[in-house]
Write a structure and sequence with these properties.
Distance between the termini: 47 Å
Order of helices and strands: HHHHHH
Helix content: 55-70%
Strand content: under 5%
Number of domains: 1
């Protein structure tokens, strides 16, 4: 039997490789956990991600700050049901949101 047969028995590719989710980190955070979450997702040190945001901020005149705030709004925190933006939209629509 080949590798494909083994993967079929354990439930598919996501079970074999593990499922990664892009979420803000609750442990490796300095501000909102965006860089920690991106670092965990990409498998790199979050300090490299922080450095990238700093470089983008310097060379794109605040572009890194914009991207960081956008990521904070979109990325849900570990253990949370949804993102901050999702919570804001639900409140605006008058729906109950368990944030």
């Amino acid at each position: 039997m080949g590798v494909g047969a083994d993967l079929g028995q354990c439930g598919g590719m996501s079970d074999y490789f593990g499922k990664k989710e892009l979420r803000r980190s609750s442990e490796r955070r300095v501000l909102a956990g965006v860089c920690g979450g991106l670092g965990d997702f990409l498998g790199i040190d979050p300090n490299f991600v922080r450095l990238a945001f700093a470089v983008i901020t310097l060379f794109m005149v605040g572009g890194g700050v914009f991207l960081y705030v956008l990521a904070w709004l979109i990325m849900p925190e570990e253990g949370a049901e949804g993102s901050v933006l999702e919570h804001i939209i639900r409140n605006f629509q008058g729906k109950r949101s368990d944030y």
